[in-house]
Design goal:
globular; 4-stranded mixed sheet; 38% helix; disordered N terminus; Rossmann fold; 457 residues
Amino acid sequence: MTKKLPLRRALIALASISLVAAACGSDDDDSTTTDAPADTEAPAATDAPAATDAPASTDGDESDMAELEVPDNPDNGVTSDEILVGWLGDATGPTASTQTAHRDGAAAYFEKVNQEGGVLGRELTLVEFDDAYVAEDTLIGFRKLVDDDKILNFIGLNNSSGIDAVAPQLEEVGTPVIGSQSGSTTTHENDYFWNTIASYADMVGVVQGRLAEELGGADKIVAIPVALTVASGDQWIEAVNSTITDRGGTVTEAVRYDARADDLSAEAITIAGLVEDKGANAIVIHGTTKPFIVLFTALDAAGVTETIIGGMTGLVQPAVYQEAPEAVTDTAWGTHTFTPIDIDTPGNVEMREFVESEGKWGDTSKSIGFVQGWVNGKIQVEAMIRAAETGELSRASLQTALGTITNFDTGGQSPLIDFSRPGHNGGANVRPYDWDGTELVAVGDYAEWTEFLPSGD
C-alpha cells in the first residue's frame, strides 16, 4: 500500500537548515549518558576529525540561499509546491517495529523542516510503500514509487532480500537511496546506495573485538553464527566465519531462524547443543526486535542463559531488554552506528525537543532507528541544496551532490558521515551498547573500536 504521510507547511524558507547547523556541536563537545556510570559516558563522535561539512545555508549569505531556486521537475518528484521522497520498507510485517521507527524519524525531520518553511520553496513529502517484509512486494513498491509517484529518491529501502531484487534496476532509473537500514553487501556495492549505517562486516569486526576482550583473547572465541533466513543473514554468517576464524577464533555450524515464527524452540535446542557439545561460548546474532524476543524466550527455556550474545543493530533496541527474559539479555549487547535518543548530544537534544513539542511518535522515537531516520533527513536536505546549486534538482544532480558529502557533522547522533569511503560507507564506525536496566549505554566512543573494523576506517 502506498500513502503520503501528512506534513505541515510553514512560511520561512530554509530557516531549518540554519537551525541544524546551530544544533550540531564540534567533535570536542561532551555528551553524557543519562543516569549512567561515569565510565560509560558516550562522547559525541570524539573520534572524528575537527573539520566537518557545514550545512550549505551557512556557507554564505542566508539571503542568497533564500533566493536559490530550481525549476519544477515532476518526473523526478519536484513539483511547484512539494518534493516527493520515497520510503520502502516493512510497516506491518515481522520487522515493522524497527523499520517504522526509521520511517518516522525521517518524517519527523521533514515535518520540522516544513514547519520552518520547507526547502527550495517547497514542502517535503514522504511517500510510503509497505512491503511487509516480502521481497516480491519490495519490487512492486519500487516500481510504484518510481514510475507512478515519480519520487526524487528513496530515504530508506530496507529489506535485504528486496534490496537484492531491485538493485539491478537502480542504475536504470538513477534513483539514489539515502540511509538504508540494511548493512548488506549489496548496499555497499551498488553506487546508488548512500550508507549511513555500518556494513555487516564492520559490525562483526567490532563484535569480535569485544568478545576477545570479554573472553580473554581472540583464540578463546568459539562462536555460533545465528541469522534470519534472508539474504543479509547469509552475508552475516559469511562475515562471522571469515572475521572470527581469520583472527584466530573458532566458528561452529550456523543456526538460521524465521522472522515470522512464533516458536523457536527447535532452534534454541540446536544452540544449546552447540554450547554443550562444541564448547561454544558466544552467539553472534543477526536479526531484529520481535524475532530476538521470540528466540531469547526459547533460549531461556532451553537453559542457554550464560552464553555471551553479541550482535548487530537489532540488539540496540530497548524493547528487546524490556520484553525478553532477563536471564538471557543479561549477557547480550549489540553494535550500532547511531546514538540512542536518551544519550545527550547536540543533535539528540534538538531531536528530543522537537519530538516532545509535537507530542507524537511516542515510544517509536525511543528506537535507535528513529535517530537514523532523522539523520537521513538532515542529509536529504543538505544534498538537495547542494544539487540545487547546479540549477536543477533531479535524481542525477542529487546523486552527484551526495558524493560531495564528507565529514558531515550530525551533532553527535553518529560519527561523521563520509560518503567518500569505498562503497559509500558513510557510517562505517560502530560501537557496542549495553543495557543498564533502564536504558542503553555506549561502551566507549567510536575511536576505541576502529581497530576492529575490516574496512580499516
